[in-house]
Design brief:
The complex is a heterodimer.
Chain A (H helix, E strand, L loop, with lengths): L9 H4 L3 H11 L26 E2 L4 E3 L5 E5 L8 H13 L6 E5 L16 H28 L6 E4 L2 E4 L4 E4 H9 L29 H4 L16 E7 L7 E5 L1 H4 L4 E7 L13 E6 L2 H9 L2 E4 L9 H11 L5 E6 L2 H6 L3 E9 L11 E7 L2 E6 L4 H12 L6 E5 L13 H13 L3 E4 L2 H6 L7 E9 L5 E9 L16 H4 L12 E6 L16 H18 L4 H9 L28 H14 L2 H4 L7 E11 L2 E12 L2 E12 L6 H21 L4 E2 L2 E2 L17 E7 L16 H13 L13 E2 L1
Parallel strand pairs in A: 3-4, 8-18, 16-17, 20-21, 24-27, 24-28
Antiparallel strand pairs in A: 1-2, 2-3, 5-6, 6-7, 8-11, 9-12, 10-11, 13-21, 14-19, 15-16, 15-18, 19-20, 22-23, 23-24, 25-26
Helix pairs in contact in A: 3-4, 4-5, 11-12, 15-20, 16-17, 19-20
Chain B lengths: L1 E4 L2 E4 L8 H8 L18 E4 L2 E4 L5 H4 L3 E3 L11 H8 L9 H14 L5 H8 L9 H11 L11
Helix pairs in contact in B: 3-6, 4-5
The chains are: A alpha+beta, B alpha+beta.
Bound molecules: FE2/S2 (inorganic) cluster (2 copies).
Chain lengths: ~750, ~160
């Protein structure tokens, strides 16, 4: 394994407990670390060996050779976090990025939350990383002051050295490291942070740390872990949620050379949580033998109540339900009255099918279990969740489970759901050997935690001038809460805060409702989560109203949004989640949304933006959406000819606050556009009799290079604090495309994916 | 069985029908070649066989016997193939998982056709999926790689 992909456990274990607790005072302030920091050392840390590094705090240690090691405690899945956060520390401590080694943090509560989801690594840890860097810098300056017997105020760190100008003395960080580690940890309020004009790396396009290894194949992803004496496991899992192995004939499978063991897996538990599914594991000395033998298994599965689940019929049911009165979430004015007295009314129903993550790397985990100890190597978004669930499955304490986070070949939320790590741990214990569980693509597509199939209904009342006087929106989809709790039928507060109840429209009479949806398949977080269906419905319906009124969509939308203001959608029992962020720091600011909207419209050909209802031709569509505290607009140009559609151009305007690494922010927006195009054009998971029909990239296609339009990304709002980046680019993509299609040919697509309605070029 | 990979002869003791992918990854511990679909649909496992791009997940080791096999680990000795340099310059990779395959497909294209047209790039790269969506940068890097030919080295 490459040394920097797995944790060098010395780094954090060398933090003396006393010193750590002091630091904890620093890092737990300002809510950044979230979790209460425990004051126990995990068991594995006691076994630490000498590394020769001097440790300045939980995240920073320095070797005598001048290498500064910085811990990245969040999972790298392509968003560039192993570059972004360590570069913030390096900048603040005046380290030279070329002398920085990034150490991947083990699962460890002391870091605070490590669940790399919700587009929050930078927004929640930017301040912490600056504090860690400033603290390390101050300790280096204190060490120099002590060494030269001069006042600390006269010692200044810069360019990986500390300098005393008056005496022209200087020392490298490496030379000062040991003495620095003995310094008193400065109190947070005494730390002086750099001013923005002196930033070396923050706000600059720092090259991605892992790129040189990626282009030479010198990387360790979860699938790449190899341990001595390891067996490979391939698991045939129950095709229907809740069903179990009823009978097994493995006589043929056992004959395949290389097969060592065949083990039934317990499962079929509901709520599914992160428990392994029921199945049969084939363990072999190589992957091919395991895959081949698995095909020879003869398994009967037990009945499950979910075997009646058919996704097409299910979605039709949801579409009917959202047209019936629902459960009222928020209510302003009197929408019924507004509709009754309207000059004009318009209504529409939209749907988005189940979607799969299909990260390029299928899930994989490797485990080794010894008495009272389990070690895991895996591509997980949340190593602490692995500690929790593996320890429960094995009857250990969480701190007896050591979790090494490899690189992730994409995550998109799938790898926050760590069932595959539990599978590996259970099998490694049974076999008393290291086991790597290898998911195939078919496993990945058929046993995902799916993005919820969703339907939504909208109706609007308009007066004589085409002004919207009333607006009702109602949605139904199986909630993620159902993954953790049985009997859930309505979306939760958080899901309703993902671009639904917070549609920031200045309409006097508006009402937001939900309708019930049964939980029939495992549901999980997929890049931008419920924002996908919420933005698709809202941005489509607003566009429909604009075009009904013969208005240019951007101008119409600006009016709908109304004055620049802070829009807080909380009302009664509905508490706007605001992505867990502080409202004062991150209010929903309609002014910023409008700025993005205007800039987005300008990316389109304004003279054509309002066109519609031709038979075929070219058209522009726009959509804007706030999610993960960021404001993103997408302008799309399509051509529709003879019922065939091609996306010609796509432009993204994003206000994500300060872009800590603008190159990676742009890359995330490019990726979000591709992700959004895939789901809009061709994303659909279908289930028949409870089992997923799709299996691989031929029937769950993703966008390919030759279908990718020309793209641009424009960043704005740099003066605001850093907000979410990984997800907010996705939601506006689909409606911008369907709005453009309407503009090009007059056909309104309300049920995704688009390829059910027209061919793709 | 003997396999010649990146100029070196390796012995593998596996069934003849074993795809080269698993011989590389499990037996020879060369994990630079990735597993994405196992069905020739994603290109993550792309390698060169006698200079031509091939999907290791669909190539039985028996079919690769006696052939000259190149993997990402052997694309260049010092990581300075013109495409590797262009990839770094354009900061192409996101998660990186598809990139071995992307580079091997692109390298086979440029070896056969150093000045590909847009259409030729499209068709040579159409078998490689990138879920992270690095396509715009892949395209830009391929077009730009030409300028690195002076200083770059390639083993294929
Ligand atoms: S793994 Fe070979 S083409 Fe996908
Ligand atoms: S970089 Fe992640 S799949 Fe291509």
């Amino acid at each position: 394994m490459t040394d920097h992909t797995l944790q060098d456990e010395n780094t954090i274990s060398l933090v003396s407990r006393r010193r750590f607790l002091k630091l904890a005072g620093i890092s737990s302030s300002g809510l950044v670390l979230g979790a209460t920091l425990p004051n126990i050392q995990p068991a594995w840390a006691d076994t630490a060996t000498e590394s020769g590094n001097a440790t300045l705090n939980l995240f920073v240690s320095i070797a005598p050779d001048n290498t500064v090691s910085i811990v990245c405690h969040r999972s790298e899945m392509g968003q560039g976090i192993r570059t972004g956060l360590p570069a913030v520390v390096a900048d603040e401590m005046e380290a030279d990025w070329n002398l920085v080694k990034v150490i991947q943090g083990l699962g460890d509560k002391r870091y605070g939350s490590q669940n790399t989801d919700g587009s929050r690594s930078v927004r929640q840890f930017y301040d912490t990383m600056r504090t860690m860097g400033a603290s390390a810098r101050t300790m280096l300056e204190q060490a120099a002051a002590q060494l030269w017997s001069v006042p600390v105020e006269e010692c200044k760190a810069g360019n990986h050295r500390v300098l005393h100008t008056a005496s022209k003395r200087s020392a490298s960080f490496g030379e000062l490291a040991e003495l620095a580690a003995t310094q008193k940890v400065p109190a947070e309020e005494t730390l002086v942070l750099k001013s923005a004009k002196n930033f070396n790396y923050i706000g600059k396009p720092v090259a991605t740390y892992d790129t040189p290894d990626i282009v030479t194949g010198n990387t360790t992803f979860g699938q790449d872990v190899i341990l001595d004496n390891m067996l490979i496991a391939s698991i045939e899992r129950a095709p229907v949620l809740g069903s179990k192995v009823a009978s097994l004939d493995d006589s043929e499978a056992r004959k395949v050379s290389g097969v060592v063991a065949i083990e039934p897996m317990d499962g079929g538990i509901e709520p599914p949580l992160f428990h392994p599914l029921s199945g049969v594991a084939v363990l072999a000395t190589n992957t091919w033998a395991a895959l081949k033998a698995r095909k020879a298994l003869k398994i009967q599965w037990s009945e499950s109540a979910h075997a009646t689940h058919n996704s097409d019929a299910y979605l039709e049911t949801l579409k009917k339900r959202v047209q019936q009165p629902g459960k009222v979430l928020t209510q302003h004015g009197d929408v019924n009255n507004a509709l009754a007295n309207a000059k004009d009314q318009h209504s529409a129903v939209y749907s988005v099918p189940y979607l799969a993550h299909a990260a390029m790397e299928p899930p994989s985990a490797t485990a080794e279990v010894k008495e009272n100890h389990c070690e895991i190597w895996s591509c997980v978004q949340d190593p602490q969740s692995v500690q929790q669930h593996v320890s429960q499955a094995l009857g250990l304490e969480a701190d007896q489970v050591k979790v090494n986070v490899t690189l992730l070949g994409g995550g998109f939320g799938r790898k926050s759901q760590i069932d595959f790590a539990v599978e590996a741990a259970v099998l490694a214990r049974k076999l008393k050997r290291p086991v790597k569980v290898v998911w195939s693509r078919e496993d990945d597509i058929r046993h995902d935690y799916y993005h919820a199939a969703a339907a939504s209904y909208f109706e609007a009342a308009m007066d004589d001038d085409g002004q919207v006087t009333g607006w009702r929106q109602r949605t139904a989809f199986p909630s993620i809460t159902g993954t953790f709790k049985n009997g859930v039928k309505h979306p939760n507060n958080g899901e309703m805060s993902l671009g639904f109840a917070d549609a920031p429209f200045d309409i006097a009479n508006r009402q937001c409702e939900t309708a019930p949806a049964e939980y029939e398949a495992r549901i999980g977080w997929l890049r931008s989560v419920a924002n996908i269906q919420n933005a698709f419905g809202i941005c489509s319906f607003a566009d429909e109203l604009a075009r009904l009124n013969n208005r240019r969509p951007d101008e119409f939308l600006l009016e709908l949004i109304g004055e620049d203001r802070q829009f807080n959608p909380s009302q009664g029992k509905f508490k706007y989640a605001n992505h867990g962020a502080n409202w004062k720091k991150f209010p929903l600011d309609t002014g910023r949304l409008k700025q993005v909207l205007k800039a987005t419209a300008e990316k389109a050909d304004l003279s054509k933006l309002g066109d519609h209802a031709r038979k075929s031709g070219e058209g522009w569509g726009i959509a804007v959406h706030r999610s993960f505290l960021s404001y993103v607009g997408i302008a799309t140009k399509v051509r529709v000819e003879e019922g065939k559609v091609r996306i010609l151009e796509m432009h993204c305007v994003a206000d994500v606050g300060l872009a800590v690494n603008p190159d990676r922010v742009e890359a995330q927006m490019e990726g979000a556009m591709v992700f959004g195009i895939s789901l809009a054009l061709m994303g659909e998971i279908r289930m028949e009799n409870g089992a997923v029909v799709n299996s691989n990239f031929h029937d769950y296609p993703l966008l390919r290079l030759q279908q990718c339009p020309n793209m641009s990304v424009t960043l704005m709002g740099q003066e605001h604090p850093p907000a979410g980046v990984g997800e907010p680019g996705v939601p506006p993509v689909a409606p911008s495309i369907t709005n453009a299609i309407f503009s090009a040919c007059g056909e309104r697509i309300r049920d995704l994916p688009i390829n059910k309605h027209m061919q793709l070029v | 069985m003997e396999l010649t990979i990146n100029g070196k002869v390796h012995q593998v003791d596996l069934d003849d029908d074993t795809p080269l992918l698993w011989a590389l990854r499990d037996e020879l511990k060369m994990t630079g070649t990735k597993f994405g679909c196992g069905a020739g649909l994603c290109g993550a496992c792309t390698i060169h066989i006698n200079g031509n791009p091939a999907r290791a997940c669909l190539t039985p080791i028996a079919a690769a016997k006696g052939a000259r096999i190149t993997t990402i680990e052997g694309l260049s000795d010092a990581g300075d193939h013109p495409l590797q340099q262009a990839w770094v310059k354009h900061n192409v990779p996101q998660c990186g998982y598809c990139q071995s395959g992307q580079l091997m497909s692109a390298a086979a294209l440029l070896a056969a056709n150093p000045q590909p047209s847009e259409k030729e790039i499209d068709s040579a790269m159409s078998g490689n999926i990138c879920r992270c969506g690095t396509y715009p940068r892949i395209k830009a890097a391929i077009k730009d790689a030409v300028q690195f030919y002076e200083g770059g080295n390639s083993n294929d």
